[in-house]
Amino acid sequence: MAKNLHEFMDKLRAIGSDEIIDVKKAVDPRYEATTFMRKLELAGRNPMVVFHEAKNLKGGKAQIPLVINAFASRKKLAIALDLPAEQYKMEPALELSRRYNQTIKPVVINKSDAPAKEVIQLGDEVDLFDYPVPITHALDGGPYILGGSVLLRVRVDNPKAHVDLNKKFGCSPDEALRLLFLAREQGLDVAGLCFHVGSQSKSADPYLEAIAGCRRLFDQAAEAGLHMRILDIGGGFPIPEIDDDFDCEPMLYEISTALKEYFPDTEIWCEPGRFICGTTVNLITRVIGTQQRNSQQWYFLDEGLYGTFSGVIFDHWDFELETFKAGKKIPATFAGPSCDSLDIMFRDKMTPLLNVDDLILVPICGAYTSASATVFNGFAKAPRVVWEDIAAELDETAATVLPNAG
Ligand SMILES: Cc1ncc(COP(=O)(O)O)c(C=O)c1O
Predict the structure, then answer these.
(1) 10 Å Cβ neighbour count for 234?
(2) In 3D, which of 94, 118, 85, 105 has the Cα closest to residue 3?
(3) Closest Cα partner for 366 from 284, 286, 301, 276?
(4) Per-residue pLDDT for the chain (406 aa), expressed as one digit of tens each?
(5) From the CA of 199, how far away is ligand 1's center (Å)?
(6) CA–CA separation, 231 vs 235, rounded Å?
(7) What is the 165 CA–ligand 1 centroid distance (Å)?
(8) Which of the residues 20, 60, 254, 366 could staple to 12 if both were Cys, CB 3.0 to 4.6 A apart?
(9) Greatest Cα pair distance in the chain
């Protein structure tokens, strides 16, 4: 086993630039280092990269190098375990399991031989701005060092949520204290608790219950000497649905009041997903076929269950179809373009009569749609057009085609 990081890096150097690259040019950890990594990734390469001349957060030369991708391949894991580089498939797992089964007793060695605590800084000597801390991309709030901080996810039973997110994640409140202390024993910084009441939750009640429950856990943990500082209330905030133009302001007010009452001094996080982007995207789809089958009207669209309408399956979402047609509505079946019989989005959906080439506007397609869409059967995902980018061009076209258009 390599004795320390330097020995490990020397072993990688003996293999070559597929496993390690030493960058001797000055590099700015603000985007530049990660841009370099991204380029390598796009080229299908994942070596450890040592930036020897990285700048620190004050713009000067950092006294320590920036190292990225230390274990980013199975080959590197094999080498770290003293296996030959070509034994990187099953062998590292087997070797680890062998070592777990044959643990060795700790051996006391000389301090001078110990490859740990080689650099020690205490108190005011510590200045994080001296380090080459990367900013990964433009959306990062700032430079950050991953420091082993964890939140414990607590389960919230909420059968009323549109999508239940508590079947796979979250411990029961009874288990929470044991897990919090276990995490601390393992050397993690136990920063707080998090929960998610389930997506598209139209009541404040599950949030209020969860907030009160978390308060109890914060207090019990504090009594036992563990002081937590963050509560993350997850997502779940709802957007309008067909026939329910839900106003969530009163609900948000209730949640915010409870947070102020129960957690006045705690840092509160939330992770809204659907609420931020759900209403920002509309789909425009075209009728590509019509048919009568057993007296039922069928419409085939150029977008289906394998595309944007994947939200019908994965998000259990019912989409509104705006056809811009007047007239009597009939129940119809809407199917997608693929070869699969599963590719039926709606049955008995009320619609005016439609013709081939009619366009349909589908509002509220911004969440859980294109993310789960596929290119099954060779149908590309729906292209995205940003309204602000094309609005002026469309206005010009409209003025030419329809000179009297307002
Ligand atoms: C951990 C976590 N946070 C936030 C979200 C976003 O949830 P929502 O879209 O309901 O706001 C999800 C959704 O799956 C999630 O799993």
Answers:
(1) 23
(2) 118
(3) 276
(4) 777 889 999 999 998 888 999 999 999 989 999 999 989 988 989 999 999 999 999 999 999 999 999 988 889 999 999 999 899 988 998 898 888 888 889 889 888 888 777 788 899 998 989 999 998 877 777 887 766 689 999 999 898 888 988 888 999 999 999 999 999 987 788 999 999 999 999 999 999 999 999 999 999 999 999 999 999 999 999 999 998 888 899 999 999 999 999 999 999 999 999 999 999 999 999 999 999 999 999 999 999 999 999 999 999 999 999 999 999 999 999 999 999 999 999 999 999 999 999 999 999 999 999 999 999 999 999 998 988 888 888 888 888 877 665 5
(5) 7
(6) 13
(7) 8
(8) 20
(9) 89
Six-digit token string for 239: 């957007």
Could you tell me if 381 and 373 are in contact, meaning their C-beta atoms sit under 8 angstroms apart? yes
Catalytic residue among 194, 270, 339, 365: 339
Q: Is the CB of 196 under 6 A from ligand 1?
A: yes
CA gap 303, 377 in Å, rounded: 12
pLDDT tens by residue, 363-384 = 999 999 999 999 999 999 999 8
63-102 as b/e, with b when 16 or more CB fall inside 10 Å? eeebbbbeebbbbbbbbbbebebebbeebbeebeeeeeee
In terms of Cα–Cα distance, which of 358, 298, 300 is closest to 330?
298
Element (H, E) at 393: helix 387-401
Domains and CATH numbers, the chain: 5-72+104-130 (no CATH), 149-277 (3.20.20.10), 281-388 (2.40.37.10)
* 277 tagged catalytic: no
Ligand 1 within 6 A of CB of 277: no
Which tokens sit at 366? 């911004």
10 Å CB burial of residue 209 (0-12, 13-18, 19+) is middle
The reply to whether ligand 1 has any atom less than 6 angstroms from the CB of 236 is: yes
Among 275, 89, 129, smallest CA distance to 197 is for 275
pTM for the predicted model, two decimal places = 0.68
Name the residue among 172, 266, 269, 178 with its Cα closest to residue 221. Answer: 178
Cα 213 to its chain centre, rounded Å, is: 26
Distance CA 157, CA 232 (A): 17
Which tokens hold the place of 221? 């943990």
Residue 81: closest CA among 69, 92, 94, 97: 92
